Amino acid sequence: MTGEAPAIFVALEQSNLGATIRQSPWLFPVANVGHILSLAVFAGALAVMDIRLLGGLAATSPAHVLMRARGIAIAAFVMLAATGFLLFTAEASHLILNPVFQIKLVLIGLGLLNLALFEFGVKRSVVDLSPGVAMPASAKTAGLMSLAIWLVVAACGRTIAYF
Amino acid sequence: MLRITTAVTAIVLAGGAAFAHHGWGSYDAAKPVTVAGPIVTSKYENPHATVTVRSDGKVWTVTLAPTSRMSTRGASAQVIAVGKSISAYGYPSTATPDEMRAERITIDGKTYEMR
Question: Which has the closest alpha carbon to A49: A74, A82, A81?
């Protein structure tokens, strides 16, 4: 399988970093556990924001909820990306050919696109809303898309090992 | 809105429950095999140590356990060194020919559980 992977991923796996991650007794497990813990925090912060966009947690203004959860979500995403890169590097040539991993990458792209559309568009229509005011349909769509995409991303992550 | 919140919480928690280490999918536990012979190559690496073993004219890839578990049970890198004679009992891969995951291995008369 290794022979079919694009050279850059073979090189990444065979790099000193790749070897270090595989040969260290603790680096891989720490990255593995760190990835899941980061996911738990990310999913929590994300769920709070998405639930607010869907109209839940309405006693607090959207701007306040989004502002509070946003920093946590960004920090957790950075940790997810960093630990994910370590896990990927250890087995890059196999993972890049794994169909579920490929789906996961596409969905991460979609999730970030959905986020960008919200940040540079929909967000303007909700940040000035007072507590208790109904959310516009565009905000509900963004929240629902976000929840759906990121939950499937997480499911894909756990499913890679079976393909 | 409470209903939405509850449903979302349930989904997120259900996702969380799945975050245990993976079980093994593509190995046929109904057809256990024993691969015995000299170790040709040996990788003491995460996520799983692997050895290749020459057995009955074939070279099998034998997938073992994470290195931390291996060393805890005494199966150090020296124990699975190249040239040692190994007997590995386990399950053949349904995806990759001549690959198996070991349930247990025996080297120098000592048996090490991999699970």
Answer: A74
- Closest CB to B15: pick one of A1, A28, A155: A155
Amino acid, single-letter form, for residue A76: A
Q: Which chain A residues have a beta carbon less than 8 Å from that of B71? A: 25
Distance, CA of A80 to CA of A85 (rounded, Å): 8
| Subunit contact A47:B2, Cβ cutoff 8 A | no
ipTM, 2 decimals? 0.78
Separation between Cα atoms, residue B59 and residue B55, nearest integer Å: 6
Q: Are A94 and A136 in contact (CB under 8 A)?
A: no
Give the torsion sign (CA, B52, B55, B60, B64): negative
**Band of residue B6 on the pLDDT scale cut at 50, 70, 90:** low
Instruction: Provide the whole-model pTM.
Output: 0.83
Bridge partners, B90 (sequence order): B33, B102
